[in-house]
Structures are given as structure tokens and as C-alpha cells.
Inverse folding.
């Protein structure tokens, strides 16, 4: 551990406050992100999806409608 | 660039970037802390207290960077009404506020042994406190108005008006007589700090900046998902009511 001289308490306090504040910010943001992902996953599990959402299982390709032929003259 | 303004594309990019950014951030902060504590020499006047500079200065830079980001995003939100600009502004506020708080507290802890006082109402310190109060005002505004569009517009106006404080912070040490030292890094004629102290400072600043970007990306992703959850719930309620 380096010798920080007569003002060591101020230096350690500055780094401790920085560590605690940054750690709290990281925990707050990461937990919020996880919570939102969980909420969205719960809704999607219930079948509530955005219209533009990609489905987990791609739907079967729909059969193309037969083109209406022009009646022969 | 404009394609990134699509929330879905933004989420895809954020998912890819976040793990790499996290690794690089913690690597840089680890190297920065090592340089700060084991390599950087004591300052000839300030002694070992100069180590506080390695957290105080990056925190102050990022407090101003965060507010500038909010002001730019607010212009994008007001003019183009783009939801991603609104999301960027809203999510930068708590991060910027944390760095602003850290700049104030670490500056105070540096001031006591160097100036003999924790606080003085000089221009630099007071304008920095005003920035912190502006951050708190923005957060309160976003929390108090439920509808995101209305909250975003009100916060955008406050953010743009409050931006006047950023150049005041920067130039306060030149315009007024302050106890705070004048600019010693970004100034005409180059930095006045010795490279042995400048290197750890820049490494720590790079690490803190990446941390800001990383947390901002995660917070933006969470906010986009929150808005999707709200929209889906609303659709679900409307469908249930019409059935």
C-alpha cells in the first residue's frame, strides 16, 4: 500500500466516495435494464407482442394466391 | 448515422457493443488506478493530494460533457421530435448528476488540505453546484410528468436554457477571481502539468469516459424497453376493453 502522507484520509475518502457512487450507479442502471427485459419477456410470453416484433418461431410461408388469369378473348 | 436513430437498430448495436465496452472500461480504469497509486509521483507543491485530481478532473469533465450531451439531444428532441433523442437526454441526466456530485465532493476533499476549507462561494464552485441543481431539476421534471412526450419537451427547454451554465463553468476561472486554479490542461500554450501526472490523468479520464458511454448505452436500452413495455400494456388494456 503506498504511503499517502499526512493527507491520506482525504485521498482515501475521495476514492471511496467515487467507488461507492459509481458502484451504486452501475447497480441501479444494470438492475433497471434487467427488470425491463424481464417485464418485456413476461408480456411476450403471454402473447402480447409488438406488431413489428420478430417472432421466435418464424411463421410458415403462406401459399401464394393464384394469379387471376385474364380471360381469353 | 440516421439508421442508428431507429430504436430497434440501436438496441442491436448496443447489445453488440456493451460487452466490449465493459471490458475496455474496466481495463482502462484498472490501469489508471495502478498508474495513479503506484507510478504517479507526488506533486512538488500539493504532495500526494494530487492523486485526488485523477478522479476529480475526469468527474468534472464528464459532468459538463453529460450536460452538453443532454442539451444537444434536447435540440434533436424538440426539432425532430425523435424519441431516441429524448431517451438519450433522459438517461444521461442521472449519470451526469453522479459525476457532478463526485466533482463537488472530491473537489471539496481536495480543497480542505490545500485551501484550508471544504467550500467557498467562488465562481467555479458555485457554477458547478448550479449544474448539479440543474441535473436534479431535469430528473425531477422527468419523474413528475407521466407522459414521456410532454416530460421530454419540458425537460428539453430547461436543458437548453440551462446550457448557458456550461461555458460559465469553463471560463469562470478566467472571468472572475477564484480560489480554484485556472485551466491547466486545455489551454493556449499546452498543459502546465508534468507528463508523469498527465498520463495517469488521461488514462483515468478515458476510463471514466468509456464508463459514461457504457452506462448511457445500458440506460438507453432500459428506457427503450420501458417504453415498449408501457406501449404493450396499453395495447393489451385496449384490446381487453374492446373484446
Amino acid at each position: 500500500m503506498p504511503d499517502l502522507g499526512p493527507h491520506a484520509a482525504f485521498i482515501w475518502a475521495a476514492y471511496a466516495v467515487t467507488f461507492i457512487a459509481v458502484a451504486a450507479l452501475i447497480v441501479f442502471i444494470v438492475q433497471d435494464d434487467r427488470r425491463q427485459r424481464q417485464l418485456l419477456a413476461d408480456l411476450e410470453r403471454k402473447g402480447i407482442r409488438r406488431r413489428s416484433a420478430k417472432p421466435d418461431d418464424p411463421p410458415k410461408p403462406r401459399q401464394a394466391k393464384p394469379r387471376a388469369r385474364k380471360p381469353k378473348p | 448515422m440516421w439508421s442508428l436513430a431507429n430504436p430497434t437498430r440501436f438496441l442491436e448495436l448496443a447489445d453488440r457493443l456493451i460487452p466490449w465496452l465493459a471490458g475496455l472500461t474496466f481495463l482502462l480504469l484498472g490501469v489508471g488506478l495502478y498508474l495513479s497509486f503506484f507510478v504517479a509521483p507526488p506533486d512538488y507543491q500539493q504532495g500526494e493530494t494530487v492523486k485526488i485530481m485523477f478522479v476529480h478532473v475526469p468527474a468534472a469533465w464528464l459532468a459538463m460533457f453529460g450536460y452538453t450531451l443532454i442539451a444537444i439531444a434536447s435540440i434533436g428532441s424538440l426539432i425532430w421530435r425523435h424519441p431516441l433523442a429524448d431517451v438519450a437526454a433522459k438517461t444521461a441526466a442521472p449519470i451526469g448528476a453522479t459525476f457532478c456530485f463526485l466533482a463537488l465532493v472530491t473537489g471539496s476533499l481536495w480543497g480542505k488540505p490545500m485551501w484550508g476549507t471544504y467550500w467557498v462561494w467562488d465562481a467555479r464552485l458555485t457554477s458547478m453546484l448550479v449544474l448539479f441543481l440543474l441535473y436534479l431539476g431535469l430528473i425531477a421534471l422527468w419523474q413528475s410528468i407521466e407522459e414521456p412526450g410532454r416530460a421530454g419537451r419540458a425537460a428539453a427547454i430547461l436543458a437548453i436554457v440551462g446550457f448557458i451554465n456550461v461555458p460559465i463553468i469553463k471560463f469562470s476561472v478566467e472571468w472572475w477571481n477564484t480560489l480554484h486554479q485556472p485551466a491547466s490542461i486545455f489551454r493556449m500554450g499546452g498543459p502546465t502539468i508534468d507528463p508523469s501526472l498527465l498520463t495517469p490523468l488521461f488514462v483515468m479520464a478515458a476510463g471514466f469516459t468509456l464508463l459514461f458511454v457504457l452506462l448511457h448505452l445500458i440506460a438507453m436500452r432500459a428506457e427503450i424497453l420501458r417504453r415498449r413495455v408501457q406501449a404493450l400494456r396499453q395495447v393489451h388494456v385496449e384490446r381487453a376493453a374492446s373484446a
Observations:
- Confidence is low (pLDDT under 50) at residues 57-65 of chain A.
- Helices of chain A lie at 8-45.
- Chain A touches chain B through 33 residues (CB under 8 Å).
- The two ends of chain A are 98 Å apart (CA to CA).
